[in-house]
Amino acid sequence: MVKEMTETNLRSAYAGESQAHMRYLIYSERAEKNKFPNVARLFQATSFAEKVHAGNHYRIIKSKGEAVTFSGAIFGTTNTSEDLQAGIDGETFEVNEMYPAYIAVANLQGENAAAKSFEWALAAEKAHLVLYEKAKKSVDQGKDASFGPINVCSMCGYTLEGEAPNKCPICNSPKEKFKSF
Ligand SMILES: [Fe+2]
Ligand SMILES: [Fe+2]
Q: Mind listing the pLDDT tens digit of every residue in the chain (181 residues)?
């Protein structure tokens, strides 16, 4: 069994990543409609990364049955600039508070698999934050972002602009594990 507090954190992280996955798909469709195809592609990539995180967290949870989960969520955005700001706000919370705190608790409780899953997510969220900030600068000037290929590791969700590396810098998976957007 996973210790209770870490398992509660895994459930919250799973719920938060699941919702981020869906929000970014919604934002991607809106960006496409608003003629920001590269921003749409960025949201496709980050959405896939959040799905990877949700799956990694979910598979570690061992308690069977229903549980009420608590997670942050963002509502009420109406355009791509606001969508990117929502992404920045969500990722900032995860990078500065949520994942560092969850990692600390998991380490304290000797829950190594959970700590690793949280660390993998943290590394990806840092990258998402940088990419959203870059995209928002362009969108706020009325222009699409200029991104090359965006690659996401299907094992840990690590996200980078440019060609896939031979080895994932976060989880060491080989190049073939990267999905290109
Ligand atoms: Fe993210
Ligand atoms: Fe990876």
A: 999 999 999 999 999 999 999 999 999 999 999 999 999 999 999 999 999 999 999 999 999 999 999 998 999 999 999 999 999 999 999 999 999 999 999 999 999 999 999 999 999 999 999 999 999 999 999 999 999 999 999 999 999 999 999 999 999 999 999 999 9
| CATH number of the structural domain spanning residue 23 | 1.20.1260.10
Give the strands of the sheet with 159-161, arranged side by side. Answer: 159-161, 150-153, 178-180
Q: How far is the CA of 123 from the centre of ligand 2 (A)?
A: 10
Using the mean position of ligand 1's atoms as its centre, give its distance from the Cα of residue 66 in Å. 26
Domain count, the chain: 1
Residues in the chain, overall count: 181
Q: Which residues pair with 179 in a beta bridge?
A: 152
128: domain range? 4-147
Residue 50 Cα to ligand 1 midpoint, Å, equals: 6
How remote is the CA of residue 99 from the centroid of ligand 1, in Å? Answer: 12
Model-wide pTM > 0.85: yes
